[in-house]
Write a structure and sequence with these properties.
The complex is a heterodimer of chains A (about 250) and B (about 325).
Chain A (H helix, E strand, L loop, with lengths): L5 E10 L2 E11 L4 E5 L6 H8 L7 E6 L2 E2 L2 E4 L2 E4 L2 H8 L2 E4 L11 H11 L5 H14 L15 H13 L5 E5 L7 H16 L3 E5 L3 H7 L2 E6 L2 E6 L1 H4 L6 H10 L1
Parallel strand pairs in A: 3-10, 3-11, 8-9, 9-10
Antiparallel strand pairs in A: 1-2, 1-4, 4-5, 6-7, 11-12
Helix pairs in contact in A: 3-4, 3-5, 4-5, 5-6
Chain B lengths: L5 H4 L18 H23 L5 H8 L2 H33 L3 H16 L2 H9 L7 E6 L4 E7 H4 L2 H26 L3 H9 L4 H31 L11 H12 L2 H30 L11 H6 L2 H14 L1
Antiparallel strand pairs in B: 1-2
Helix pairs in contact in B: 3-12, 4-5, 4-8, 4-10, 4-11, 5-8, 6-8, 8-10, 9-10, 10-12, 11-12
Classes of the chains: A alpha/beta (about 250), B mainly alpha (about 325).
């Protein structure tokens, strides 16, 4: 049996007294696409950010490819790692943000080669070749020398995907990647994600795109108020859910 | 109710619609104000030129005198060193102020409070006379009387060193606020994106956060540098041999106060004008990627002529 790519067991997270995650159990196998859905405030984005330790957790265990991301285990205690060690473990986990977060002072190409050159130590020439290939893959071969401000939202998000892929991640996290886009630009981004899934990339996607989830996801997870309400085959969870809350959510967004 | 016929709504037009001349609004008030301002300026310059008490020959004699160049050299290195001290210490204090440790935050706030809250002139005189407070500078174990090494304060704290300390520490208080504002102006999502790519905090700061903070930091730092150049004149009160100290020494002997102040002013003006050039260049360098800063030549930005150029172009297009 292979280790799952992401395994969460009883993950809890508080902001002061507010419990945002109340014991999340979730497994994402290699090569699978897992879509997290739910109303805003349900904790799905927070959970995603815990996977690469942008947020710490307060209880439970969360492993990526068998490794704890932000912690080291000593007996029954988890000790938080130092930033450089966490950085080392984040290399293999790509992340795409709702608001793109491209580096505005760098061109599209410079955004893509930044981490390969300065983190992975790949020679600039080689990284540039690879970056051109990735930009072509996301349909932006002719935009390499544009600054983010000169690109549309959809183009920026595709550069952001190329930037994350440049580190050759084994897992990709998407935090509402199309929520900040104009409706007519959503399709291009989803196409890129669809191709990525078809190539066998393991992906965890927080999204409101029910259609995309139905079509691409291997697992759909519906979350509400910090708990997983329902999880499973998207053809069941998103078509004929067992829980009333899932049904209410679906009828509201569709 | 009166019925409006179609013809009533049309403006009264004579001749063809295509050959109408547009007459822009005449700003007569502006023209009168401009004429008055020019007349005042001509009057002022004329009266200065005819005023024998100005002694232009004295200005000419001293403008390139060796003593003045000595003073200039001191003013320049003092400006550079005080800005370097201010920027270095100010950055450390800014980082302390952004720290989540309440002790570091409190100490940096105390520093800013003290050095921003007292007049610079007071601080300069304080450092100049610090030997009256501590006659010896010692390094040792506090409260035990054990001393490893000690100096005579007056031999260490020369007027130049006192001037540098006073200007640099004061500047650090102001700079720390500028740097802090710059760092805080960068979207937290930028650091998150960098972290998610596996970049360490130091690399994130150097490659991602600081270059973007620079865009906010550079313009006020340029102003601070220009200000510093002029504030060095204050250290003449402790005789630090800067430009202003030397000017004062001269007019204390020959009583030509006004001509000597003209000499000083001409040099300060020249230096400030020179400083504006690297500032414009830096602003452009760190403005990369922002829509506002693209393809505008340095000279044009420096002279602030971009808006007029734009207006002229619009006018030309309108006139076509």
């Amino acid at each position: 049996m292979t280790t799952p790519m992401v395994q969460a067991k009883g993950v809890t997270k508080n902001y002061g007294k507010l419990e945002v995650l109340k014991g999340i159990d979730l497994t994402v196998e290699r090569g699978q696409v897992c879509c997290l859905l739910g109303p805003s405030g349900s904790g799905k984005s927070t959970f995603l950010r815990c996977i690469n330790h942008l947020e710490g957790i307060d209880g439970g265990t969360l492993t990526v490819d068998g490794d704890l991301v932000g912690y080291r285990r000593h007996g029954q205690k988890l000790h938080e790692l130092r930033e450089p060690e966490i950085a080392q473990r984040r290399r293999d986990i790509g992340m795409v943000f709702q608001r793109f977060n491209l580096f505005p002072h760098m061109t599209a190409l410079q955004n893509v080669i930044e981490a390969p050159v300065n983190v992975a130590g790949i020679p600039r020439v080689q990284a540039t070749q690879e970056a051109h290939r990735l930009l072509e893959q996301v349909g932006l071969a002719d935009r390499a020398d544009h600054y983010p401000a000169q690109l549309s939202g959809g183009q920026q998000q595709r550069v952001a995907i190329a930037r994350a892929l440049a580190m050759k991640p084994k897992l990709m996290l998407f935090d509402e990647p199309t929520s900040a886009l104009d409706p007519e630009l959503v399709g291009d981004v989803l196409d890129v994600m669809r191709n990525l899934a078809a190539e066998g990339m393991t992906m965890v996607v927080v999204t409101h795109e029910i259609g995309f989830a139905r079509e691409v996801a291997d697992t759909a997870v519906f979350m509400d108020e910090g708990v997983v309400v329902e999880a499973g085959d998207p053809r069941h969870v998103l078509v004929e859910p067992e829980q009333d809350r899932t049904r209410a959510f679906l009828s509201a967004v569709l | 109710m009166a019925t409006l016929s179609h013809a009533d709504m049309k403006p009264d037009l004579h001749g063809s619609d295509e050959n109408l001349n547009v007459v822009p609004l005449r700003h007569y008030g502006r023209w009168i104000a401009a004429a008055a301002a020019i007349a005042a300026l001509v009057g002022l310059v004329g009266s200065l030129a005819k005023n024998d008490n100005l002694h232009w020959n004295v200005v000419g004699d001293y403008l390139f005198a060796g003593l003045i160049f000595d003073g200039l050299a001191t003013t320049l290195w003092l400006t550079a060193a005080a800005m370097a001290l201010g920027l270095g210490l100010g950055t450390v204090i800014a980082v302390m102020r952004l720290s989540s440790s309440p002790i570091l935050y409190g100490m940096s706030s105390l520093f800013v409070w003290a050095f921003r809250g007292t007049p610079l002139l007071v601080q300069i005189i304080f450092w100049g006379y610090a030997a009256a407070l501590y006659s010896q500078i010692k390094i040792g174990v506090p409260f035990t009387g054990i001393t490893f090494i000690s100096w005579d304060t007056n031999s260490v704290l020369t007027p130049a060193v006192a001037a540098l300390l006073a200007l640099g520490l004061n500047e650090a208080a102001y700079t720390s606020e500028i740097v802090r504002a710059g760092i805080q102006s960068v979207d937290p999502g930028q650091a998150e994106a960098a972290h998610s790519l596996g970049m360490r905090p130091a690399l994130t700061a150097r490659r991602i956060v600081l270059p973007q903070a620079m865009r906010v930091i550079i313009p006020p730092m340029g102003n601070e540098t220009i200000n510093m150049l002029k504030m060095t004149a204050l250290v003449s009160v402790i005789g630090a041999h800067d430009l202003m100290s030397n000017i004062q020494e001269v007019y204390a002997q020959n009583y030509q106060v006004i001509p000597m102040l003209v000499v000083a002013s001409l040099w300060y003006l020249a230096l400030v004008s020179l400083l504006s050039i690297p500032q414009a260049w830096l602003e452009r360098r760190y403005g990369r990627g922002s829509a506002r800063s693209q393809n505008i030549p340095v000279i044009q930005r420096m002279l602030g002529t971009t808006s007029t150029t734009l207006a002229r172009r619009t006018k030309k297009e309108a006139g076509r």
